[in-house]
Write a structure and sequence with these properties.
The complex is a heterotrimer. By secondary structure, chain A is an all-alpha fold. Helices cover 78% and strands 0% of the residues of chain A. Chain A has one domain: Phosphate transport system protein phou homolog 2, domain 2 (Methane Monooxygenase Hydroxylase, Chain G, domain 1). Chain A has six helices and no strands. Chain B has a three-stranded antiparallel sheet. Classes of the chains: A mainly alpha, B mainly alpha, C alpha/beta. Chain A: It is found in: Cytoplasm. Chain A: Plays a role in the regulation of phosphate uptake.
Chain lengths: 242, 451, 265
Amino acid sequence: MNTEAHIASAFDRDLEGIQAKIMKMGGLVENSILNAVESLEKRDEEQAEQVRKSDRVIDALEEEINNDAAQVIALRAPTAVDLRVVLSVMKISANLERIGDYAKNMAKRTTVLSQMPPVNGSAASLRRMAKEVDRMLRSALDAYIQRDVDLAYEVIHRDEDVDQMYNTLFREFLTFMMEDPRNITACMHLHFIAKNTERMGDHVTAIAEQVIYLVTGETPDEKRPKGDETSVNPDVAPQYEE
Amino acid sequence: MTDMATNNDIVPPAKSSLLALDARTQRRNREESTFKALGLGAVGIGMLFLLILLTTIVSNGVGAFTQTFINVPVYLDPAKLDKKGERNLDDIKKVSTFGYSPLVLNGLLELVQENGIDTPFEKSKQMKSLVSASAAAKVRDYVIANPDQIGETVTFNLLAASRVDGYLKDRVKREDVARDKNISAEHLDLVDELVKAGIVKKGFNWSFITGADASESRAEQAGIGVAMMGSFFMMLVVLLLSLPIGVAASIYLEEFAPQNKFTDLIEVNISNLAAVPSIVFGILGLAVFIQFMHLPQSAPLVGGLVLTLMTLPTIIISTRAALKAVPSSIRQAALGVGASKMQSVFHHVLPLAMPGILTGTIIGLAQALGETAPLLLIGMVGYIASNPPDGIVSGFMDPNSAMPAQIYEWAKRADPAYYERAWGGIIILLLFLLTMNVIAVILRRRFERRW
Amino acid sequence: MFDTDNAKNTMTQTDIKFSAKNVQVFYGENHAIKDVNVELEDKTVTAFIGPSGCGKSTFLRCLNRMNDTIDICKVKGDILLDGEDIYDKRVDPVQLRAKVGMVFQKPNPFPKSIYDNVAYGPRIHGLARSKAELDEIVEKSLRGAAIWNEVKDRLDAPGTGLSGGQQQRLCIARAIATKPEVLLMDEPCSALDPIATAQVEELIDDLRKDFSVVIVTHSMQQAARVSQKTAFFHLGNLVEFGETPQIFTNPEDERTESYITGRIG
């Protein structure tokens, strides 16, 4: 990585500013994830409302970052590593925005779920999963700041764990639903939350991939580890006994 | 569709090897080498002519720089030179060169007899054709300067007669002597003997460079020095007048004058003036300076004025070229920081154009130095036979000659000894021109700056 | 973070430096500038862009009456510098040019020493009363042009011996030595390599603190990089004038868009 300053100091200021915005956005998204899952656990509708509000801020930030990136491209004609910075910033912000959307979705379901009887132990499992995604996001953003490819690869591998957690939850929810059809509504919502969290993990992985692209100029060719087998393996789901 | 049609007409070039030359390339190469050979030939012919010119000039002219001298002990007989014996300078001066001549010839005859040279001449008068007519004058000058030497015997290094000089330089042949009243075969025998005895010798002739012109019969005495002074005074006038006038006119025309029909007209006329034959300037000078303004004839001032007229167009044209060559970015830079037009010209443009201006001026001067025709018309061919600083050459208003005019004068004269001197004068003139051109080149190199 | 923010800030603090009203320029029969109205802000870099022969250089040269040196050039309309008409009969262009300095396309240092190049303007304008004062002006100007460190040990060396970029910065130092209020730059980087260009551009960005800068450039990228305001000229008309980021991301006029996207030249 070339870390020397540009002769045009304004260019450095532009690039730094745009990356500072990404970090700010990352922080907001992290908070949203944690708040969303906490509100679910505590059945705190107010906290859920906060998550929805902060998503509006995140969306605004994304638009700002897009505009800034467009200006940098238009005014400074970035090349090589500068170009990769701008491109990766745009993709990272898009991914962060999606994560923020999922968090908002979680918060929405929290409002519905809080009207229903709780499903045993599910909230804690979801929280563990969300915490893991949050840690991954934090690592991915650290990797971005430090231009740390190894850390980025580690993040990509950790997505497997999240997928595993999702598999477990998927089975758990199926079992609950088969046990008692009254659980179906709640479990469906919970399952969507789990699925959203799993998708968050995928977006974090995409961010980590952008870090690798930014540093090396190449997207990782290694096939991403896939832990989520529910869509391909019918054996994962417990069978109905006729 | 038309494109396709034409495309079909084009025959794709046959596959050819780079190692084999095609006919076209061969023809082009032939043409190129022919042209190069022609150019080389042209340069060669030019060099050949230059070589012929230089060898002719040097071989003809170098003789003028050596001269034959006779070492004669002369008894300064008081009975003849100072009859009253009072050593009164006024009395001594009354004795003319006719009184000195016999003393010199006696001295020579005695010298011949002392050396035991066998000769048919017994009278001192017969020695006359060996010694230059200027010898008596030289002895007289010496006596007047040193009256106390009267009564002594003083050895003089006197000029030999031009026939003797010519004989030693192979210009006068024995077979020609029969028809020559000035010298006889016996004299030549005597000269041979005197050379053997070391009395007659050739030496470097300083007086050719410093001396004045001499009469038709005294070729051995003539020098170009006085004409050189005349040329020098003229060049001084030309330089002092044409440089400031020319440069001022050029700066005005190039930097300040508006672009209109009038300035165009001036420009065309200046270019035309540069091409006007120099004799036209001569007749103009004659009419204006001498007939109208009544300035003295043959004066370096008038010559300088005429040559100034002739040189001005050259200087203006070269100065304008030098000013034009200064990039306009320099002027703009000066204007851009708030300099006035005149400041930009005098602080920046003129210093940059200086080498070009000086070169042009020196070349103009060199041209003027070699100019003859206009000088003939204003009478700058004065016959000045006395050496500086004796009067005549002391100033701008006194009659004088100029180097090229002097050369022309010599070339006109009948005595072949003058022919040699004309060539010698040309060598000196060429040396002057060469020096001036070298100075021009050095100035250009020294002051030339890149921008 | 973006320069636009600064530009907005300065707009509120400072006022209009140059104000052109209905400016028309004729070169003999040729109508070079057609009815240009524009207001240039103080402490701002304004870029003039446009295809060759669009009049941007001509208009720039109207601002310090450099066009006066061309006989056939006629200027109509009003150009006000701080509210005073610079084409008023009482205005001496020499005095105006001391206030409105100019840097040219080709670096054109005088073939004199670096010191004399910078000291020339102050000398002819009598800005220094002593040698010490002159030294100070020279040093300040060279520092201001970000070239002091490169030349401080060889102020007696000829200015023409510097590299292209250094020469151009020397010319900028020479221009700011007369303490102008406005600096006009006519394609200041067109003869420079990319690194030297970047250095000069960085310098221009710096100069904005003390001067208003007007720069004519053939390089749209350069206009984008250095300016806060951009004016697009086409066929003698001022087509569009506005914030640089606006012009380069979303211009209002179709001709501007076609030009900056490389569709008309």
